[in-house]
Amino acid sequence: MASTYYAIGVIFVIYIWVYFWKDRCTSKQYNSSDRFSRFMWYAVTRCAVLLMSPGNIKGKLICVTVDAVVYVVLNIAAGNVALQYIFWPGTIIAAASGSIRRAAYILAAEILLAGYLYIVRSVPVRIKNGTGLYCFSGMAVLMFFFARDIDGQYIGMLADNSGNAPMLLVFSILLMVVALMSVLIGMSGNDLRILQPQTQSAGSGATGRGSLDCGFSGFKCVDALIMITGTLAFFIMGITGLGTHTIPSSQLHIQADRNRDVVLDFGRDVTISKVEIFLGYEGKRTVSFSKLEDDAWNVFKSRQEVTAAYCWNEIKLDSTQKVLGCVFLDNDAYVGEMIFFDDKGNKILPQNAGAYMKLFDEQALYPENETYYYRTMFDEVYHARTAYEFANDLPIYENTHPPLGKTIISIGIKMFGMNPFGWRFMSVVCGSFIVTLVYAFALRITGSRECAVFAMLLQMTEFMHFTLSRIATIDIMAALFIIAMFYFMTAFMQTEKRAYLLLDGIVSGAAIAVKWTGIYAGAGLAIIFLLWCLNKKNTLESNDGILNNKVIKMNKDCGRNAYWLRLGAECLACFIIIPLIIYTLSYVQFAQVYTDKNAIEHVISNGKLMLSYHSKTIFEHPYASEWYEWIFDKKSLLDALTVNRDGSISSVATFAGPVVCWGGIVAFFHQIYRWSVKKDRVSAMLVIAYASLIIPWMFVKRTVFIYHYLTCLSILVLMISYSVRTGIRDGSKRKKVMIVTAIISIALFAMFYPVLSGADVPREYINAALKWLPGWRFV
Amino acid sequence: MNQIKKTSVATAVIVITVIASYIIAHLTGAQQSRLYIKIAMCTALALTAVIASVNVRTMTCHDIHYYDVIIIAIMAAGIIMRIGYMLYTPCNIRQHDLWGFDADAGGHAAYILNLMQYHRLPLSNKLQFYQQPFFYIAGSLMSLVVNSILNTSSAYELADAARTAACTASCLMLPASDALCRECGIGGRGRVISTALVACSPVFYMTAGMLTPDSLSTLLMVLAVLYTIKWSNDCSWKNTVLLAVIYGLGVMTKVSVGVIALFTAVVFVIRLVKTVKTDAKQWKMLMLRYIVFGLISMPLGLWYSVRNYRMFGQPIGYVLDIGGSRSKLYTGDRSIAARIFTFSIDNIMKGPYADVFNDYNAPAYYLKSSLFGEYRYEVPAIIPAVLLFAALFITFIAVVAVIYQLIHLKNKSIAYYAVPVVSVLMYASVTYFYMKYPYGCSMDYRYMGLLSVMAGAALGRMCENTIEIRFRNIVMNTCKLNKYIVFMLTVFCLASVIMYVMVQ
Lengths: 779, 504
Prior knowledge:
- The structure holds two protein chains of two kinds.
- By secondary structure, chain A is an alpha+beta fold.
- Chain A has 27 helices and ten strands.
- In chain A, a hairpin with a 4-residue loop joins strand 7 (about 330-340) and strand 8.
- Chain A is globular.
- Chain B is about 70% helix and about 0% strand.
- Chain B is mainly α.
- The two termini of chain B are about 45 Å apart.
- In chain B, a hairpin with a 2-residue loop joins strand 1 (about 470) and strand 2.
- Chain B has a two-stranded antiparallel sheet with strand order 1-2.
- Chain B contains 20 helices and two strands.
- At the A-B interface, helix 8, strand 1 and helix 27 of A face helix 14, helix 15, helix 17, strand 2 and helix 20 of B.
- Strand 1 (about 190-195) of chain A pairs antiparallel with strand 2 (about 475) of chain B, so a sheet runs across the interface.
């Protein structure tokens, strides 16, 4: 529910930013949208909030109907004001509320507001006092209902004198007073004047406006050199301290009829404080411990669960015995190593360790500190293990995402073995390729090598990109393919070379086969492509308009139809057939392991399973965060945390870098401005790409985490780079801004490196220097 | 009447008013019942408003006394609030480090009792005895006068009456800040804004009722800035000696007053450089003034510190340690960014009152403690919330004003850059202090009351001058913004007065 309010707020702020600012700059008064686009905005805003907010359908339908009637009346009576009606938070809340009484109140207020705005817009005098009222009242209404619906604040609390003031409610009321005051203040004189109306027409300018040709003239040798250098530098950074090459590899296969009971004789009475069990392939084992007393087995620790695969799992025993019995209660289990510790913390080995050689042959591999370096962390317990299964044709455990990501991880395992370095290796490779891609992308859209290097540096020092490049999860692969999707589409739009369409189709298929988030990007890609087609159509028609000869015109028409038909067929092949083939091919492994179905049947059955799983995956998680929290980098996700014996900390956290995340917000608004006012198609592409990757999460009800924001961050890097390129026209000033920003980004990366990489660092340093926000948890 | 006479009369009137109010409240028994004091406050405020309205009714804003009448009325309201707060707040309520009415207790009351009962300075530097003595000396003198008239001598009454010194200093802040605005070249409208902000800032009510040197040190800081500007315009012997005495007394009140000396030092250097460039013969005279300045201010300000250093080995600039990370007030386990370089909206939304044990974000705490100290009040929630909202708005605009003025320093006089520079200096100083002593109580706004005076002056200048803000092809003057500021300031003042009339 809160996300609905945030979405309404974001929509409102963007509307104010774009339209009010635009109208001030161009001295236009809200005539910038025709009825069709108004209707589209109306439909989008209402549908979005209706889908996002829960509640009774009947009440909502009534509210939406009333809202629609008001909208239609306003549209006919005062077309321009209708646009303001659409975006005013009160009306959206009213439409989505489902409460008829509330809707009636808000709509009445809105009609009054609209009437007032209509009057002041129509009066040709100096008073332009609708803006303050509109903006302040909009925010006030939004805050008021947020306070009521989300924070549970109510008017009665205003008189409460226990110190628990309903701050948001009070703020909203005061804001409403300010809104009303703004009418009086506005009436007393106009204080805003336009020095000179902006004469620059849309579609002209230095870079990028109206077309995608930004001065990019192909890659040169020096670009290749820069890309290789940057990629290698990131790759080296990535593999430094990536993980150990050696973990316990010999595993005891425990089955119902074999090795189920492990009896360990220590030769004398020993006090065992704890046992560390390194689980091999297949996690989540249940073990019972018993000791032999007077020729009878007494169970003292029953049904202890060890859950993490390829990880040391600790069980406290605190028991004194000579002979210890461990009973593995699962029918099928792989145990890599068992290490027993006495009450002084020293390792102790049973006398009959030789009888269970595989359990006790790699005791030296137990690390002093069980950091991320020696074990699986976060979702690696699923993905690394499944990748191992892919590499060895074993039954597949993780099937809640399509298989390509795990297949890619398994390449590293095949190359370096089943160890942390092996299962993380391909993530570093993918992360490094993203750096390359971002450089190429930035160069393509900005046409400036400096800006491209700047973007590459930002990408290299982006926190989440670095962290997720060192974890064996599939997000970095999905990000790589999604960025490639947008890159190839841009390349196609710039050059119209069909090869790029083909490549785009391939990477689209790969992205979806890694993670379904590729579909979101696909929707964005479709919109970008559609806009390009519309623009192309207009360009062709306007070129034809100057022809007088009817025969030539007819021939042109035929040629144009043929062009669109061919393009349509190519799109069908590239964006439907090729992705489908790739997606199906990714299931070949399934078909090999589970021979009862072919690959297509696996695609369908697994698709159903994934749909069902992701729609029901709602659970409490300390690191879960909402989509709007990602935008501000509110909460980090702790992948691994170890308190070392010397008191220092090794932690790996996933969160966005401040420069990209916060700077990206500014760049995002700048891009919206450019798209809307300057008709910049690069900006349009970037904004749509970003929106397509974030908007779907507004409707997702499952528990989500900040790592879903990874691809958006790369888009933000491109936005920052492009904003610097287009926003600062003075070359030397631009250079300075880029250098300073890059230095800040590098410095922050260095500062936060310990909590991104898992390097040991004193706890005091983390507390004093790194915990900028309350939600950033590193210890 | 010349300026000195005016100042002397105003000061005498304020001192007499404070003492007389205290004595009358005691003699009539009104201090025993808060209700009577609050009725008296409301009556006095209403009377002030009526008299001011009657006077202003026949004037226009072009009349030379138009703004003066309004300013005097606002000052009167401010003084009523300060005296009222002091009278209805007992000596042992909402205090800091009072620690019992015993000469050995080590708190502020004990300091006063040492002076009054034993006619001596504290014999050790334990607890609060390390503090500079001027406030306690002034408080003891005023307490002596009051208690002689009332014929009382209990430890409680001796300490309680010493608060009249704090209250007087807090009241004198009003004419002092107005004089500062005048000296900075701010006109009538701006002075009204500034005076309203200073008059209705709750931090000055609270420090008026506390037995701590904060209000006196703030007053002396304001005077130091004022006389530095005066000196920059006219470096006569009179101004030099006055400035030296102010610094001497200031540092004798609290060592932190010395922070302003950085500003004065810059002014001194600028003056010296200019003199050497324009009139090489005069620089020797100027140097002589500097020497005299040092000879007066340094012994006056630092004698107690030197005494403590010699007697107890107490370092200059010593601050009482309250236990490091073991203290419940310790905030050093939070990052510097979270403590200092961010503004916690979450904290603001949590509630209006500061929580000295759990809050750690300095900007949010500064704002809250400037309004409510570290206390919670049993008043309807809407009042503190409205006060906080208005203060938030005013603070935001004041920060913008200071930054704007700081950016546009080029070719401006010392009178212009005094406000933004001192504001930044003061903020940097208190923030550094909080970095060095990371405790909840280090963020208390009572140490930085000067910022309110500076914010008032910055806002005043902003409202006085119709600044044209240019952005691309749009020109916006601050005329409309002024109206919002006046509106929010009115809300702030009303909420502040209502709040502190209702407080129990």
